[in-house]
């Protein structure tokens, strides 16, 4: 492998970010249990505003997260009868919708964080840095669609196929950055920002994702009895 920025950023950096993501999360969990929290500031905001901002953000981001995995499912999608052009249409329409939803929610969260004096006072610098970084990543992700959509309109999915192979090569620990040497820059910038999210993850409030209380959905209801006995 010949050394170049492309090789470093897309062949080595993803593993540096991945290692920091895993080791950093473990070390933080072991050492800093008290700081393992989403640092929710919900209590400091108008309930209605926060409900919209938080729901739009989480729905958008989680849909994008799942959408990014469809790149690994091309064989299954083909088996289901979806050809690559249809796959790209589906990915672009769902991805753009989710991206815009997340952007609206994210901007609302950021505005509240910097403009509301109480929330700002309760925020650590990293709370703002990670939100801004996610929004930048989101902007570049959405910008890739200025290339992807015109391509798919002309039934071309060349870039998509190259990117799927590249991302797979990373996941299979056989990184092949040469695959994307000629890919338009905007995809590279977006992927670099995406890898960096993993690098920043253990130092941010994002760690709450590891311990999201999914059992809340299935656990039995909590019984809360009123002190005042109801008169039947
Ligand atoms: C390891 C991290 C990531 C990688 C490798 C990655 C890769 C990609 C690629 C290759 C595309 C273009 C798909 C196409 O048009 O063919 C894309 C699109 C997009 N990405 Fe990412 N991404 C990453 C993380 C993120 C994150 C963290 C966000 C959100 C904050 C995000 C938001 C988007 C959006 C909104 C689009 C456009 C809509 C879509 O195609 O889903 N990405 N990403």
TrEMBL record:
Heme b binds at residues 58, 68, 190, 208. The chain crosses the membrane at residues 12-29, 49-69, 89-115, 127-147, 179-201. The keyword Protein biosynthesis does not apply. One of its GO terms (cellular component) is nitrate reductase complex. It is found in: Cell membrane. One of its GO terms (biological process) is anaerobic electron transport chain. It is an enzyme of class 1 (oxidoreductase). Keywords: Cell membrane, Electron transport, Heme, Iron, Membrane, Metal-binding, Nitrate assimilation, Oxidoreductase, Transmembrane, Transmembrane helix, Transport. One of its GO terms (molecular function) is electron transfer activity. Residues 6-227 form the NarG-like domain. This is nitrate reductase (quinone). The lineage of its organism: Bacteria, Pseudomonadati, Pseudomonadota, Acidithiobacillia, Acidithiobacillales. The gene is narI.
């Amino acid at each position: 492998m010949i050394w170049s920025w492309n090789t470093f950023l897309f062949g080595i950096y993803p593993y540096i970010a991945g290692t920091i993501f895993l080791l950093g999360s473990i070390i933080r969990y072991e050492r800093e249990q008290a700081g393992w929290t989403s640092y929710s500031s919900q209590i400091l905001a108008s309930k209605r505003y926060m409900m919209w901002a938080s729901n739009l953000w989480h729905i958008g981001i989680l849909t994008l997260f799942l959408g990014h995995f469809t790149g690994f499912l091309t064989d299954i999608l083909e088996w289901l009868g979806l050809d690559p052009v249809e796959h790209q249409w589906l990915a672009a329409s769902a991805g753009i919708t989710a991206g815009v939803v997340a952007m609206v929610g994210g901007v609302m969260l950021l505005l509240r964080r910097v403009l509301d004096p109480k929330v700002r006072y309760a925020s650590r610098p990293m709370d703002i840095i990670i939100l801004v970084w996610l929004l930048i990543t989101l902007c570049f992700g959405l910008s890739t669609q200025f290339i992807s959509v015109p391509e798919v309109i002309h039934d071309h999915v060349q870039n998509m196929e190259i990117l799927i192979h590249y991302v797979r090569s990373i996941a299979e620990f056989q990184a092949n950055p040469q695959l994307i040497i000629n890919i338009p820059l905007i995809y590279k910038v977006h992927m670099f920002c995406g890898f960096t999210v993993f690098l920043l993850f253990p130092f941010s409030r994002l760690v709450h994702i590891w311990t999201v209380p999914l059992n809340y959905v299935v656990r039995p209801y909590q019984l809360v009895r009123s002190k005042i006995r109801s008169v039947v």
